[in-house]
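Course exercise 7: structure representation. Students receive a sequence record and must write out the corresponding structure in token form. The form below is the worked example handed out in class, using SDR family oxidoreductase (251 residues). Read each field label carefully; the graders check that inputs and outputs are placed in the correct fields and that the protein name is recorded exactly as given.

STUDENT ID: A-19
EXERCISE PROTEIN: SDR family oxidoreductase
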Amino acid sequence: MPSRPRTILVTGAASGIGAACCRALAGPGTSILVHTRKNEAGAEAVAQAVRAAGGVAEVMLGDIADPAMPAALVERAQARFGGLDVVVANAGFADRTPVASLTEAAFARSMDTVLWAFLRLAQAAMPVLARGEAPRLVAISSFVAHVFRTDATIFPATAAAKAGVEALVRALAVEAAASGTTVNAVAPGFTQKDASGHSAMTQAQWDAVRARIPLGRLGTPTDVAQAVAYLASPGAGYVTGQVLHVNGGLI
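STUDENT ANSWER:
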């Protein structure tokens, strides 16, 4: 039996996929650090859902692009819960600015928030995860790193950042294998946002993409969270260095 509750850190967890991951991972014997940049009310609602499911939860605010933030999150998890077993790196945003209009500052923002933040989080978390129970690191990537078509919306900066995340996942999986830590990514397709959530696309654009998805619907945060829950589970101990696409068959 574990000597303490299974401790989980989820970044960008106040809404959408991150919130769904917290709900999917919650239960008796789990402690979850719910991170958000500034949506404290949303994060507190997620924390309450974790508690209602029998788990323990705490909220921490901060910009994941701040170079000091990833390490601070890992430190808080250790201080509050005594260790760290699972990290779900979800925080990020989508930028569909065309390459011709993409400024260096905007490109750097995507890199800082997605790729650099993931690297820093992994560097801070891996030594701690190696001491955890069935240690798991799961990154949220995106279909935008894979789908490039004339009839599809292109997200150049986001695609570059997420492709970098996937490359790091594979490298980390090799480096972490000796400790039993698995490192994987989940790449969602077009996924419904919360009613109050920000979207990089208009409703008309969301409606148009449905026709291109073989299963005929947008994904839900819960669809993605169930894949994350599997990769984060003790039962996924022989799965590492993989990118699991949750996209309704989109190619």
